[in-house]
Amino acid sequence: MIRFLRFTLAAALVAATWGAAAAETTLSVNDPGTGVFDQPNATFSGSTVYVAFIGGDSASGPFRVFFAAVNGAADFTNLQLQRGGTVLPIPPFAIDGTGAGGNSPYFDARHPKIALRKTSEAVILFQARPASTDNVYRPYIARVALSGNTATLVSVRQIEGFPAGALPNGDNLSTGDIEDISFSLLLADGTARMAFASRPAIASATPFHVYFARVGLDTATVAGTPLLLSSGTGDTVTGSDGFRPTPSLRLDGKNRAHVAWAANGSTPTASGVYYALVTSTAAADTIAIGATEVLGRSLPWGHPSALPTVDRHTVVVATDESIPGKAGSMGIVNIDPDAVVHNGLPVSIGLARTFLLAGPTVMPASFDSYRPEVFLDILEQIHVAGYGASGTLANYYAISTTGQAPFVNFAFATPPISVGIGTSETPAELPDDYTRTAFAVLTRRTIAFWSGRIPGSANRNLDFTSVPNNSFTPAVEEGCSMAGSPGAGETERIPGILFIFLPAAALALRRIQISIRRRLGRGIAD
Fold this sequence. Notes:
- 1% of the residues lie in helices and 46% in strands.
- It is mostly beta strands.
- The chain has one domain (21-468): YVTN repeat-like/Quinoprotein amine dehydrogenase (Methylamine Dehydrogenase, Chain H).
- The chain has a six-stranded mixed β-sheet. A four-stranded antiparallel β-sheet has the order 3-30-29-28, with no helix packed on it. A four-stranded antiparallel β-sheet has the order 4-5-6-7, with no helix packed on it.
- β4 (36-45) and β5 (48-56) form a beta hairpin.
- The longest helix has 7 residues, at 11-17.
- The N and C termini lie close together (6 Å).
C-alpha cells in the first residue's frame, strides 16, 4: 500500500525569508581550547539549561562525562557578554570515572543523555567501557544533586540486573555490548524506561538487536526481563534489526513507551523505520504493538525519532542517509496507536487503515538534515536540529503547516537565522563515531550547542548560543524528551575537509486529518 502527500514550498518564499538576524554571542561551555568536547545533550528547568557532554584531551579519547548549567535568560545579543558565572551558573565538572567513593569505574564514555528527575536532581544515562581492556560498552546512571548554583555528584553506577546467560535468541545482555541509549523518566515510581541496542561486542560484524527495559534510578538495576522489540534474528532486510538503529523512546501521558528505530544496513541501502508500543503496569511491561514498519524501504533511513502528541497520535521522523556526511531528506509519518488492537503483534497497515493518519512522506529539500535531533513542545511544534549543508555556520528557522486536505503546505513561521555569527568554529564529529545536536527550546528562544572545531588546532570547544523561536514551553522539561539515542562505533564519518553546520528547524504540526489519503506529490511506500 502506498500513501502520498503533496508538500509545496515556493522558492520565492524561501528567497524572501532567508536572511540574517542580529548577531548573538557564541561562547564555550568548557574552558576554551583545553581539549575535545563533543556529544552534548540538554534539558532545562525555567530558564536554566542543563547540559551533559563528553570531553577528553584529544579526539581519540578517552572521554569522561561532564555536566554544566547555562543561563538561558542571558543577553546573548550583548556582543560583550563574557563566559562566567552570569552565563554559566554551574561551570562544567567531570563525572568521576575512577570508582572512588563506592561508585562504578568507567572508561571512555560516549553519548550521555540527561533529564531532570526533579528540580533538585539531574539524571544522566550514558554508555562506557568498564575498563580500558573491555571490548563492550555497558550502560551507566549518574545522579547529580542540584542546589542553587551548586551541583554535587550523588552516584555513578553501572546498570546491573540483566538476565544472566543467553536469551532464547542468543543475546547475553549481562555481558554484551549495549549502545544507543534513549530513555524517559517515570517520576511516580522512580524508574527510567530505556530503549537500547545490543550485540556481542563493539567491533562485532553483526547487526544490533533493539530492546526495552525498566531501570530503577536509585538502585541502577533492571526490573524484570528486558523486552526484545526488533526481530532479533540479525536480519536487516526482511527483519527489523539494524547496524545503527539508534532507537528513540518517548513516554506519553499514559506512561506508554513509544519506540522507533532504523533497520539499516552496514552500507547506505534502502531500509525501513520500525515502531513499537510498550504498555506497563506497576509490576510488568508488555509489548502492545510489535515491530511495525512505518517508513518504508525506499531510502536508507536513519536516526529516527518517536514523538507522541497530546491527542495520542504519534509522529515518527527520520532522515535519508544515502550520502555519508551529507544532509538528506526528512521522512515523516503520523500514526494512531489506539486505532488497533494491542495484542503484541505488528500492525498490518494494509488492513488497519485507521492506524496510518498521514504519510509516510518525504519532505521538501528545504527540510533536509543530517542525523537530526527533535523536540516536541507544548504547542505541538516539532523542533528539528541536525548537521546539514557545508560551508556555513549554524542555522535556525521555524516552519508552520497550513492547508486543507488533501494538501499540506509548509511555510516559514520564522525566517532562517544564522546561528553563531562571529565564530569560525564550525561543528565536527569524532573519528569513527558520530554526534547529534543538542538544544533547549525555551519560551521565545532556543539555546543551541555544538562541538566547534578551533581553526588551526586539534581542539574543539562545546559552543553554545541563542536564537529566537516562536515557541512557548512549560517551566520544566522532563523525561529526556530532547534526547535521542545515539551510539558509538559508527562506520561512517564526516571527511575532515568537510565543514558542516548545525541547522535547527521548528515545524508546527496541526492535527493532520485522517482523510489525507490521496496519491499526490512526492511520497514513499509504507
